[in-house]
Amino acid sequence: EVQLVQSEAEVKKPGESLKISCKGSENSFTNYWIGWVRQMPGRGLEWMGIIYPAVSDIKYSPSFQGHVTISADKSTSTAYLQWSSLRASDTAVYYCARQGPFLHSYFDLWGRGTLVTVSS
Amino acid sequence: ELVLTQSPGTLSLSPGERATLSCRASQIFASAYLAWYQQKPGQAPRLLIYGASSRATGIPDRFSGSGSGTDFTLTISRLEPEDFAVYYCQQYGSLPRTFGQGTKVEIK
Lengths: 120, 108
Description:
The complex is a heterodimer of chains A (120) and B (108).
Chain A: E1 4-6, E2 10-12, E3 18-24, E4 33-39, E5 45-52, E6 57-60, E7 69-73, E8 78-83, E9 92-99, E10 107-110, E11 114-118
Parallel strand pairs in A: 2-11
Antiparallel strand pairs in A: 1-3, 3-8, 4-5, 4-9, 5-6, 7-8, 9-10, 9-11
Chain B: E1 4-7, E2 10-13, E3 19-25, E4 34-39, E5 46-50, E6 54-55, E7 63-68, E8 71-76, E9 86-91, E10 98-99, E11 103-107
Parallel strand pairs in B: 2-11
Antiparallel strand pairs in B: 1-3, 3-8, 4-5, 4-9, 5-6, 7-8, 9-10, 9-11
């Protein structure tokens, strides 16, 4: 079954760093864009950015650029979302999702989400 | 940034009724680039509609999408118990991609 497997929930303190992951099967990763979507508690979906792992082409939302880093390792079919200094407002569920091979495409496959809790 | 506004915020209906959800864009964009997703509590979103009107694989035909320009609609012809959820529209024609704020369809 084609799926995206996300890393487990994390509890961190403000100012700490974090890197969460999203692993796909080879045929769900190669030649696809992988995106990240934030959902804060009780809130809607927010598009953070996408990466094309084959060439590491990355598009960020201005709302998130500079605060998070999106990366990928095509050799392990894994995408990453990382923070160098977390804030309490980063508390949310983060979903990775697969987008078709074209820049203009929708998310057709989603991971189950990683809950990140940032609290002192 | 292209803003999507969904209405109503909450729709209270009974099983078997018809649900009509609206998604309005702040500017005209290619309707080929509008998707709808369904999200149930504690679950990841699921793709329902892409290209404004094409059903994703496995989506029942009671779900239909329509619209163009700045106004788009998701219609659920007869609500089943499993359809009570939150629905989001998303545009993927311009960067950054954006989602609407969601419409909750709840049991009346």
